[in-house]
Design brief:
Strands 3, 4, 5, 6, 7, 14 and 15 form a 7-stranded mixed sheet that branches. The chain is an alpha/beta fold and about 325 residues long. The two termini are about 20 Å apart. About 30% of the residues lie in helices and about 25% in strands. Bound molecules: NADP nicotinamide-adenine-dinucleotide phosphate.
Amino acid sequence: MTQNDQFTALLLEQDEEEKVGASLQSLDNDRLPEGDVTVAIKYSTLNYKDGMIVNGIGRLVRDYPHVPGIDFCGVVEQSSSPDYKAGDEVILTGWRVGEIHWGGFATRARVKSEWLVPLPKGISLRQSMSIGTAGFTAMLAVMALEDHGLSPDNPGEVLVTGAAGGVGSVAVSILSNLGYRVAAATGREETHGYLTDLGASTLVDRAELAETPRGPMSKERWSGIIDNVGGDSLGNILGSLAYWGSCAAVGNAGGIKFSSTVIPFLLRGINLLGIDSNTCPFERRRKAWERLSKELPMDKLDSLTSEIGLTEVIDNANSILKGNVRGRLVIDVSR
Ligand SMILES: NC(=O)c1ccc[n+]([C@@H]2O[C@H](COP(=O)([O-])OP(=O)(O)OC[C@H]3O[C@@H](n4cnc5c(N)ncnc54)[C@H](OP(=O)(O)O)[C@@H]3O)[C@@H](O)[C@H]2O)c1
């Protein structure tokens, strides 16, 4: 058996008491799942959802042993698809890879060609994973808000909650680069300088958004919202959206339940827009990546990115669940 017949993966296994454990292992290629494209993975990333999966939380994984990692990029090794050939540089996010399919915390993956996107011109493989699922989702949220009328000419600021996290950091950078005035809501005062450097014009204390407003509508404050937090604060901020403004509901870092009234929907025409990066159709996916390659300032992307190796994933998977990770964590799978 040669080195090329095997690959390295962070393997999750479940014991008899259904406790999930993770370890780095060498696996034979014949353990790769079915698919028409085999990819030599170069980089993956650590997202909030990866933190949950590595820690066996949320029943996101049904079958063990499992290789986590909801996104990756790399170079095609073998392909029986007419869309890809050996040597092509590709990105994969979503399609529940890393959840119900084996994912990117490995040096090799075999996947369906329709899940892949070609690396857009102008960015490197590493930069594509600095962006990763989080950045891709941030762009989908911006596109959804724009489709519903958001423009830099609208009065008011765009609010980004969970701003110092992965989705939030990229959202702040894109919006400010596009000329929007951005209010960044964070629970971590120590990230204020970082968020200002990314382009936030106002900093909002997360605790302020947790306070229940007096009535169903407050003063118009936000021209749009990208919400990464969910929970009570989502219900609270909807009443401060400006007339015809929209909120893109992206995340649940603060909880899954929220309560609101229909009043701002009926009297201000607001919209609540769901974002699902997993099943985003191919053409919109490609458009989002194209826009990311042009509209996300790469110096800001570099400043919000840290790099770890596969061996450091387990520690960092705990940190991300505690809200202690700032910006984006790229994983170099070769170390
Ligand atoms: N819909 C989709 O397709 C999609 C795609 C990607 C991610 N997501 C979801 O979007 C959210 C953000 O993802 P991410 O990768 O950016 O995660 P992340 O890097 O962990 O960022 C989440 C941020 O939320 C804030 N936060 C954490 N715990 C909180 C709490 N208890 N109450 C209020 N705020 C809290 C923190 O921001 P501050 O420190 O700034 O307060 C934290 O940095 C997650 O819920 C994730 O599952 C959804």
